[in-house]
Design the sequence.
């Protein structure tokens, strides 16, 4: 790099105010308790925000580049690490894209197990979001509660998949583990625990007068604006758009499951707060249905099962656990392209996978929900007060590592 | 002989000032309060709180260890700061937060260095000085977040000072004195102030929460907006002093509250004599009452998030001030009727 | 046929793959790209999911994935608006490691494409003409002009040379 070349304009960064400008520049982050791994460059006129520029990329890990230089199966752990509270969904989206290219259809039981893991993961993701929002508004109680109540669900995931967070549970053709004995009872008691906690959350969080004062009519995004900004997930539904990928293009077992998509009308921070609690209730309903209607059968597609060697088949019969056949490491899918859309906790994940007959993906495009929710900063926060910025940031459940990939 | 008496009188007063109920008790109470605040909030929030420092007594020495850590940390003076103001302001803040204690008697026989019949007036007047140094801190730090914090402090001080004075004036009208000891005597013969004028008590409590920065008015130190507010650039002991100041203020305000509204050293009579009943027992009772008030106020952090600055200022000018005026009117009516 | 707009059928090659869920709209002429995008937007494809680029060395293909929130019929479909740019005839620019390719920006049509186009710009060196704010978004400032996601990108640091293939 030529050192004389001016690559970074100081005045643009906001350290020097132009003459005659009555606004001040405030750089929130990257080392700030309310910014996360990003820098929010704001200009303030008094207490009013006049300009917001979200500078992201501080935790960019070149994940797309890395995944294009590995065998297909080895992209699963990378995919999971972009969105740690939402690992199952990222895993699922990638596997769906890959299965479309490989022409594998997983058996029904595997579909149900995928949905089960996804819904447990959605609850943990929403609790994570509620907790972060709590600490942004100054409610340390909600922060601790949400993270504490996330723990039983992570324990459930551990029981189901063998790992707490990065479980790599879903593989092409099915899932890796059978549901263990005693899981249904434990799941039911966890769900009942969560249902009993809703009253506490209402008292201290959703119906708290201070929370209402801080969030009602803050960061209002009406329906048309939400559509034009292209925001995703609960934020979109809080603005009154009836869109959920689970309904729009069903994947896993969602075709057979009866559930509602909660929707709010006003689109302010308070609606975005409420809709996450509503979605947790729906997820509980879905998990109950899945546990009741779970079909019997194999957890891996026959085409994958037939590739297991005798030792692996023995392990599968005894421990109900899928060991990786050599095919996973050596697969060279024919030239094709596919997309996958998955409704993760924070919104829709979109993956575009392109193969050319090689053992690496030729192009693997990742679009994460937080990256699409980035528009909330630059477009929505303008005109509100400085103290509203955390109220908007927290309510959209933005996760910088997920946006930066 | 006269000189000896003077020396004894001075030593006695210095003991009052430094040991009981002054600096030492205040520091012990603050350390205890911070520990209990963290422990009780932790209980509500499904966690342990301080535990690993002195595990046998449930982590009670955590605050002491924090204090020691602050004392031996490296102090950093920011380049752009106004260094004299930066160094002096926390000290003055702390001193002026302590100063109301001179005029707050915790028993019928306490006479301090400055015997006066206007102790209520003096103590309340001294309480209003601390925020000026908070503003200086924000200015001297040369940090935008500190500066915004101090601006917020200024806005809030102006909007909440008047209700505080109105609430005290309401009680002064009822007691017909500007001295704490007759005010407590009045409560002993009649009723505690909180029953005589509950509106004034409410206003006082709200202002006490506000001026000491407890939740939901933790606005000047809102960490998700302003990092650490006023104290963003501070480190080491100066940061510790800055953090302790609101607690000292809280202690002073709680003492005033227990004297003006909770009957002071009731049930011990104002005519009690002797070292125990006349000196220590009233003091301990007042401090226990004040401590309970402090506990209630710091516990609010487990319940409420924080308001926005404009909401707090608006509620100060549009609601609390009218409550203060109503409290004064109630007092005037009571005086007329009684 | 999901896409029944005549303007689009006339100017673009449409390939609907129900199984994979992609409707491929391949625009051959750069000048008609914006019109096709506007027609799609008028049909009800109201938001942009992703903007990306695939480097085939001799040509590069820029892809906009769009879908619909408001139209129930289109909700389950993703339109892949695609355009190919020939890279063999580009003039090298000393400022950049490899020459930039130029395509029109579709931010005016889909505002949601703004950040995706910024990312594709810095990763692939695609100059989106008409983009209101074409800056870097993820990469550090000294990485501008390297176009790291192109297939001919290599780096050599600490003795480790990494090359594709």
Sequence:
């Amino acid at each position: 790099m030529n050192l004389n070349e001016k690559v970074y304009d100081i005045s643009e960064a906001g350290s020097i105010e132009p003459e005659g400008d009555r606004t001040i520049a405030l750089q929130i982050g990257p080392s700030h308790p309310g910014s996360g791994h990003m820098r929010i460059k704001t200009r303030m006129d008094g207490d009013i925000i006049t300009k917001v520029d979200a500078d992201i990329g501080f935790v960019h890990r070149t994940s797309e580049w890395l995944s294009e230089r590995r065998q297909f199966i080895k992209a699963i752990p990378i995919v999971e690490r972009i969105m740690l509270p939402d690992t199952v969904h990222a895993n699922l989206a990638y596997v769906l894209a890959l299965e479309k290219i490989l022409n594998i259809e997983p058996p029904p039981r595997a579909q149900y197990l995928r949905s089960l893991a996804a819904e447990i993961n959605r609850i943990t993701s929403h609790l994570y979001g509620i907790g972060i929002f709590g600490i942004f508004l100054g409610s340390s109680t909600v922060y601790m509660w949400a993270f504490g109540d996330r723990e039983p669900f992570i324990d459930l995931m551990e029981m189901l998949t063998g790992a707490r967070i990065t479980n790599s549970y879903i593989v092409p053709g099915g899932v890796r583990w059978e549901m263990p004995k005693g899981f249904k009872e434990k799941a039911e008691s966890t769900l009942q625990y969560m249902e009993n906690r809703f009253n506490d959350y209402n008292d201290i969080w959703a119906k708290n007068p201070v929370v209402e004062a801080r969030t009602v009519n803050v960061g209002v995004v009406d329906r048309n604006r939400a559509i034009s900004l292209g925001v995703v997930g609960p934020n979109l539904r809080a603005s009154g758009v009836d869109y959920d990928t689970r309904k729009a293009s069903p994947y896993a077992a969602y075709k057979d499951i009866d559930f509602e998509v909660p929707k709010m009308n006003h689109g302010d921070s308070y609606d975005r707060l409420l809709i996450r609690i509503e979605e947790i209730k729906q997820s509980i309903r879905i998990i109950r249905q899945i546990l009741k209607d779970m079909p019997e059968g194999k957890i891996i597609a026959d085409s994958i099962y037939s590739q297991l060697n005798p030792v692996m088949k023995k392990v599968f019969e005894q421990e109900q656990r899928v060991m990786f056949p050599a095919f996973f490491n050596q697969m060279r899918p024919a030239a094709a392209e596919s997309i996958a859309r998955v409704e993760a906790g924070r919104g829709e994940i979109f993956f575009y996978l392109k193969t050319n007959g090689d053992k690496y993906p030729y192009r693997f495009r990742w679009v994460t929900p937080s990256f699409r929710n980035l528009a909330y900063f630059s477009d929505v926060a303008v005109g509100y007060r400085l103290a509203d910025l955390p109220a908007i940031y927290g309510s959209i459940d933005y996760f910088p590592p997920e946006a930066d990939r | 002989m006269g000189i000896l008496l003077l020396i004894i009188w001075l030593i006695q007063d210095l003991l009052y000032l430094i040991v009981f109920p002054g600096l030492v008790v205040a520091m012990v109470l603050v350390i205890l309060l911070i520990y209990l605040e963290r422990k009780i909030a932790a209980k509500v929030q499904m966690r342990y709180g301080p535990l690993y420092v002195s595990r046998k007594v449930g982590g009670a020495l955590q605050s002491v260890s924090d204090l020691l850590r602050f004392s031996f940390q490296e102090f950093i003076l920011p380049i752009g700061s106004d260094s004299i103001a930066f160094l002096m302001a926390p000290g003055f803040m702390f001193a002026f937060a302590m100063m109301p204690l001179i005029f707050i008697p915790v028993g019928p026989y306490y006479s301090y260095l400055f015997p006066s019949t206007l102790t209520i007036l003096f103590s309340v007047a001294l309480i209003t000085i601390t925020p000026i140094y908070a503003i200086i801190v924000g200015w001297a730090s040369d940090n935008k977040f500190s500066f915004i914090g101090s601006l917020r402090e200024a806005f809030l001080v102006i909007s909440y000072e008047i209700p505080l004075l109105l609430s005290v004036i309401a009680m002064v009208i009822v007691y017909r004195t500007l001295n704490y000891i007759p005010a407590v005597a009045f409560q002993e013969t009649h009723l505690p102030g909180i029953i005589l004028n509950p509106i004034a008590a409410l206003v006082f409590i709200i202002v006490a929460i506000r001026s000491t920065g407890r939740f939901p008015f933790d606005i000047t130190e809102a960490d998700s907006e302003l990092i650490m507010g006023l104290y963003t650039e501070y480190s080491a002991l100066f940061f510790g002093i800055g953090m302790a100041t609101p607690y000292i203020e809280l202690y002073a305000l709680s003492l005033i509250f227990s004297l003006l509204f909770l009957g002071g050293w009731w049930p011990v009579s104002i005519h009690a004599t002797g070292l125990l009943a006349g000196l220590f027992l009233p003091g301990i009772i007042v401090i226990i009452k004040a401590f309970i008030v402090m506990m209630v106020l710091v516990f609010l952090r487990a319940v409420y998030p924080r308001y926005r600055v404009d909401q707090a200022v608006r509620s100060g000018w549009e609601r609390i001030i009218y409550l203060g005026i109503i409290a004064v009117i109630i007092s005037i009516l009571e005086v007329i009727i009684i | 046929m999901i896409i029944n707009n005549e303007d689009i059928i006339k100017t673009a090659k449409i390939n609907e793959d129900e199984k994979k869920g992609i409707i491929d709209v391949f625009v051959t002429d750069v000048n008609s790209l914006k019109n096709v995008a506007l027609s799609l937007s008028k049909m009800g494809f109201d938001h942009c999911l992703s903007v990306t680029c695939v480097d085939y060395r001799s040509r590069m293909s820029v892809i906009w994935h769009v879908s619909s929130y408001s139209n129930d019929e289109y909700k389950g479909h993703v339109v892949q608006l695609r355009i190919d740019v020939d890279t063999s005839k580009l003039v090298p620019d000393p400022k950049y490691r490899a020459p930039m390719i130029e395509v029109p920006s579709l931010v005016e049509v889909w505002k949601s494409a703004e950040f995706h186009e910024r990312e594709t710009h810095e990763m692939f060196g695609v100059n989106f003409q008409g983009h209101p704010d074409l800056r870097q978004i993820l990469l550090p400032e000294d990485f501008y002009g390297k176009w790291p996601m192109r297939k001919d990108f290599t780096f050599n640091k600490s003795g480790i040379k990494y090359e594709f293939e």
Summary: Residues 138 and 147 of chain B are 5 Å apart (CA to CA). Chain B has a mean pLDDT of 84.
